[in-house]
From TrEMBL:
The gene is prmB. Keywords: Methyltransferase, Ribonucleoprotein, Ribosomal protein, S-adenosyl-L-methionine, Transferase. GO terms for molecular function: methyltransferase activity. This is 50S ribosomal protein L3 N(5)-glutamine methyltransferase. Residues 133-215 form the Methyltransferase small domain. GO terms for cellular component: ribosome. One of its GO terms (biological process) is methylation. Coiled coil: none annotated. Its EC number is 2.1.1.298. It comes from the Bacteria. SUPFAM superfamilies: S-adenosyl-L-methionine-dependent methyltransferases. InterPro entries: DNA_methylase_N6_adenine_CS, HemK-like, Ribosome_uL3_MTase, SAM-dependent_MTases_sf, Small_mtfrase_dom.
Amino acid sequence: MSAEADLHTVRDFLRYAISRFNAAELGFGHGTTTALDEAAFIILEALHLPVDELDPWLDCRLTGGERARLAGLIEERCRTRRPAAYLMGRTYIRGVPFKSDERAIVPRSFIGELLAGDLFGGEGFALVPEPEAIGRVLDLCTGSGCLAILAAMLFKNAEVDAVDLSPEALSLAAENVALHEMEGRVRLHQGDLFAPLKGRRYDLIITNPPYVDAKTCAALPPEHRHEPMLAFAGGPDGLDIVRRILEEAPKHLARDGGLICEIGTDREILEAEYPHLPFLWLDTEDSEGEVFWLAATDFAAAR
């Protein structure tokens, strides 16, 4: 008997998917971190249900067509090792949907969580006390455009420039900009980091650049190999592009501006190489010391 004939409820398919994913030794890390979360996302998204509400649907019986679709997706995930976001053509950051396919890295970033937190307009200590005062934002290495769009949502008065080297990634970013009706506020630029910006200055620069070192790139799990290697490769120690950003950012920051950058787990390398820069490390629910903040005044004081 096939899975679609034996399984009847959401709970049945959830259990089956987890068992299949574990047996296939799948890798995660594209918005989910466990077989349970991955299975729940695929099932709920395929059934057009809210992806953050599993319990209400667990004992719902499925139609024959729904069972066939779920069984096919579960087997395809195991057979191809494609990330779930690519299988579904869609993923979410903090509940905000984004189109996703092989043109760009699957949308994910600790910066997305930080933008939704109290550091931007919250009570008490805040990197940006008044989000409405932000007039220009730059998103470097924008990929799918997700962080540029999230920034436009948060900073209501800002114009956002988003840059990527890959024309393919920018074509996907354009679809996401259109999806969120941001064409009037998010402008896409093809080029190498700051090159297409002609000396513009910004109140905020956000960036999730390639930061994977060469050894790790060579050993990436199959799921990650479906993504463009350009989005990972950061040179021998992973920080070549981060160094370029640190070198060029001061020329593109407004006097009271700041830079927020995700770099992975190589904090010690940066701190040793740039002892004059007072990196402020920003932790999230799932990361510690992988994102830093530097104000324009920090760069000026270090000269």
